[in-house]
Structures are given as C-alpha cells and as structure tokens.
Write a structure and sequence with these properties.
- By secondary structure, this protein is mainly α.
- It has one domain (17-288): MetI-like fold (Orthogonal Bundle).
- 71% of the residues lie in helices and 3% in strands.
- The chain is built from 13 helices and 2 strands; from the N terminus they run H-E-E-H-H-H-H-H-H-H-H-H-H-H-H.
- The protein has helices at 11-36, 52-58, 61-91, 97-107, 114-124, 131-138, 149-177, 181-189, 194-205, 207-222, 226-231, 243-253, 257-288, and strands at residues 38-42, 45-48.
- A two-stranded antiparallel sheet has the order 1-2.
- The chain is globular, with a radius of gyration of 24 Å.
Length: 295
Amino acid sequence: MNNKVPNNRAWLLVLPMLVLVAFSAIIPLMTVVNYSVQDVLGPHARFFTGTEWFQSMLNDDALQAAFLRQISFSLIILAIQIPLGIGIALIMPKRGWQASAVLILITLPLLIPWNVVGSIWQIFTRGDIGLMGWGLRQLGVEYNITRNAGDAWVTIILMDVWHWTPLVAMLCYSGLRSIPEAYYQAARIDRASKWAVFRYIQLPKLTNVLVIAVLLRFMHSFMIYAEPFVLTGGGPGSATTFLSQSLTTMAVGQQDLGPSAAFSLIYFLVILLVSWVFYTTIMNMQKDKPPHGGA
C-alpha cells in the first residue's frame, strides 16, 4: 500500500510562468474585453454599451470586404504553400554536405524581418530599378502594383510564398527524415512505385507535421500586416487592405478603443474557430483512412 504524501511544492516552479502568462496574455485580454463593452470618451468618462460595438463591427461593410479579402488570401496561400513545401522537401538531399547547404539556403528568407521583406519586394517590382518590374516591362507586360489591383495581389502572394514556403518545407523535411528506413525497404521489396510510397508511407507519416504547418501558416497569413503595408500600403484603393490593417487604423489612427476592442475579439475568435476546424478536419481524415498492409 502506497502511503506517500503528494508533494505539491513542484507547483512553485510553475508559479513564475503562470504569473508571466497572466501579465502577458490574460490581463491584456481582459482589458480588451472591458473596452469592448464600453464607450470610452475620456479617462473618467466611460459608458456601458453591451454588445453595441460587436453588432456595429459585424455589420460594417468595409470590414466584411476586408474579411473576404483576408480569408481568400489565406486559402490561396495554403493551397500553394502546402503542396509546394511538400514537393521541395521530397527533392531535398537526405544526407551529406548537400543537405546542410540546401537547409541553410532554404532558411535564409525566414531570417529576414517582415518589414524588410516588404521593402525588398517593393524595390524588386519597381519598373525603373527593380529586376522583376524592369524585366516585365521589357517583355511588354503592363505591370504596376500601385494602380492595378490584380498586380498587387499577385505580388503579395508571390512575396508570401517566397518568404514562408521554406517553413513548410522544413517541417515536411523533418517529418520525412523521421520515417524509419524499414518502410522504404519493404516498399522496395514490394516494388512499389514512387507514387505508392508517397501515398501510403510518406503522406500518412506527415499528417501531424502538416497539421502544424497548416495551423501556423493559416494563423500567420490571417494576421499578415507588415509585408502588404510596406509593399502597397493597402492599395490600390483598398484592394490589399486586410483585417490587421483595418484594425490598426481603427485602434491607433482613429483611437476608437471600443470598436477596435470588439473587432480584435471577433478577429481572435475567427482565427481560433477556423484553426479548430482545420485541425479537426485533418485529424478526422486521418482516422477515417483504412489501414494498409503494404505499399
């Protein structure tokens, strides 16, 4: 019979982290919730508004348009970067100095700050000094991100693909390297094709990695701010004005604390909800797959 008394002093080691989380996350969140139900007219002039700001934000046509642009951008990014990242990981060297060299080269875009990425692509796309803009102009292609919404959208998508596909590739590469060699040996014995190896060995083993990649890329793409702000400033017009830029303008530029607090909570809940949908969908797809005895 075990008569040992539980030692709860270990919680003292966790207490500093709990305090840090409280100050860095919980308290700011409660402050936002507090502002979202008030009309703040001054330091000592506040009036309870209930759900008025939430209703106002949900019925705002400009924010609805920004939401559609945001969700469209995130879906396009996921549709491009996930398959592309898997493809890059599959062709990367598995060992030797070539693998180390490729890993270093492929991670370089991830080291560049977000605002610098916007500046790089702003110069890159200029028709007078930018290699891409000048080259397209020499080919007779009318390209201008400041006047053509389509050009601005294509450029932002290309910029994000260049900047963040290496993250997906690195995650997939780590997942592929963790697959035991015995699976590949069995596939070679069965004379399985490359597609069969990918379909029945590599892809199932990448499920957990792909869940992380999808969630990370969705959350970041849904909160993108610095890159399009530096590149296009949200233009032409409001063609590339995403939710994060609308929120910043409302909170910092207009000082509308109540509406911006309500907007930020809605923003947070949308990200949380869609991330949960992605996660449960991918995991359910994995559970529903019938077991395969071989490749």
